[in-house]
């Protein structure tokens, strides 16, 4: 069955230290782990870099070099579209297929704004992509959370028009999974039988309070493993390092 590794919010910068952590070292730790896992690809759900410099994308590419699987990338609010495209052109996608699944990217990023918005044209594009898909099952990926995170995360920084997005999503019965990053935390929700997953950051998590024991650490970093089954069910697990 197809399997994707999802990482998010790597926040690589020109210097190692970002937001009080060494985001380059943390991504190296994640890369070492995921290169050992058999998968069909590594999906990065935005904020590859902290400030979008060309150098930071090159550093990121270098850190990911041990990973031999195909890499699929979408941008986040911290990314700079031109620089991202210069270094990761082959990895950027609107949609791609894995067995009887189609993975569709929705652009939710607004220039120079932290919160997200799905424009009318992006909604139309999504509607068409779902209508035209000959896959049995659809997975959607975007950068911004589409549901309240029920945490210390400020939901005002998430997608500002989730109701517009759900109007389109609810028309399409093939959608099984929606996943995003941006909130720097792992979380699981559901909506009318659709699984909704938040992917943790490879740099640091913002939300420390609700967690207990070993997981309540500042340097907690992780990634998602997603198995997309032929019958449309999903097995998923967040792996912490
Ligand atoms: Fe973000």
Automatic annotation (TrEMBL):
GO terms for molecular function: hydrolase activity; metal ion binding. Gene3D superfamilies: 3.60.21.10. Residues 3-185 form the Calcineurin-like phosphoesterase domain. The keyword Metal-binding applies. Pfam families: Metallophos (PF00149). Belongs to the cyclic nucleotide phosphodiesterase class-III family. Keywords: Hydrolase, Iron, Metal-binding. It comes from the Bacteria. This is 3',5'-cyclic-nucleotide phosphodiesterase.
